[in-house]
Amino acid sequence: MSKKKHCTYLFIIQRTGLSEADVKEISGYLALLNSTGCDVVVVDASPLDVYAAHEGAWFSLCRHVKVDSRYLSWNPFINSIYTGVFQAACQKVIAASESVRYSPEDILRMCELLEHFELVRPQNYLYPLHWWNQIESAGILINRTVLPGGDSPETFGFLCTSFKKFCNRKDRSFDSSEDLTREFIFHRAKVCFALDFLIQKNSSTFSDWCGKCFRETYRTFSFGIQPVTFLLMFPLGVALWLFLGAEALIFYTSAILLSFITIAFLGRFRGGNRFFPVRLSLAAPAWLFERMLCYYKTLFWMLNPGKHPLLAPSGRKKSRHYYIKGLNTVKLLEGNRKTQKN
To answer: What's the CA dihedral at 11, 101, 153, 93 to 10 degrees?
Structure first.
């Protein structure tokens, strides 16, 4: 008799090729998920030749499926989630990108939280920490401080029936996990932003890191408070230098850098101390500089639509329920803490 599964784990992958070491590492992870009691579904958006190679390597460890072409989001991660949901054999579902690594304890904790909530958003931390990943980690810390729901992770858990009820709509397109989360909140589902629940994410290569920030900024760009603030920092500094002199510029620059370092340091709290060394706070100025470059580069290409060789505007619709996230987050975090105490 087969052992009862705790949850369905959607392992979402898109590669143009895998080294032998990568195949072996992923095979070991899939075997670990199986031994933990997961129904493992690998949702693969790779080209057909790469997909066939993956099938040969993992057929005994999982159900291996191709991304359904019916889902037309620009984000392969979202298309893969929709494909996997209709393959899920369990009510509890964990969706995660190929770089995320749950431990058996993490799987069990997610399943416990899904006893109380319909959607659970943990947080990610990066390992190992190369110098460029330290800059990315500083950004995670800043988001953990500034955003009520913390940083946006590459994994979350949900109940299959709730997902189908709230998000399987023909009149709405969802292009990010943020969109899906907002839809749950709009329908008054029980959502948990588990800021003290941190899941390992394997560090990206330098080439992947170089393009990731710009791609995400380009596809989600809008003239909101954050983009405008980053775009105005440099012109304001130049204006202070021209009209008030070098001392004003030094004071202005020092104040901004110290503020961001402090904000990043505060992000270590709420459960992050174990996973984010203090030194990562000092990388906040580098993250600020990276973000400024990305916004200026994005603004340039937004003024030249259709000319970028790799990207095209997503054309996604803004969520009309965005404000609800801010109004409900504190309540949801309190619910998380109460569940942990019981």
So the answer is: 40
Classify burial at 301, counting beta carbons within 10 Å of its beta carbon; exposed 0-12, middle 13-18, buried 19 or more.
Answer: middle
The CATH superfamily holding the domain 7-140+150-204+331-341 is: Spore Coat Polysaccharide Biosynthesis Protein SpsA; Chain A (3.90.550.10)
- Among residues 136, 166, 131, the alpha carbon closest in space to that of 151 is found at 136
Q: Is 265 helix (H, G, I), strand (E, B) or coil?
A: helix
**Tokens coding 3:** 């052992």
d(CA 192, CA 340): 11
Query: Average pLDDT, stretch 246-264?
Result: 96
N- to C-terminal Cα distance for the chain?
Answer: 34
3-state helix, strand, coil in the chain (%, to 5): 55, 15, 30
pLDDT for residue 316 is more than 80: no
Backbone torsions φ then ψ of 133, nearest 5 degrees:
-75, -25
Residue 302: what pLDDT?
78
Neighbours of 112 (CB within 10 A): 14
Q: Could you state, in order of their start, the residue ranges of all structural domains in the chain?
A: 7-140+150-204+331-341, 207-315
CB-neighbour burial class of residue 173 (10 A; exposed 0-12, middle 13-18, buried 19+): middle
Residue 273 has pLDDT above 50, yes or no: yes
Q: Count of H helices and E strands in the chain?
A: 12, 8
Instruction: Tell me the Ramachandran region of residue 150: left when phi exceeds 0, alpha when psi lies from -120 to 50, beta otherwise.
Output: left
Q: Which helix (H) or strand (E) holds 97?
A: strand 92-97
Q: Nearest to residue 92, comparing CAs of 78, 62, 112? A: 112
Q: If residue 208 lies in a helix (H) or strand (E), which one and from where to where? A: helix 206-219
Average pLDDT over the chain, rounded to an integer: 86
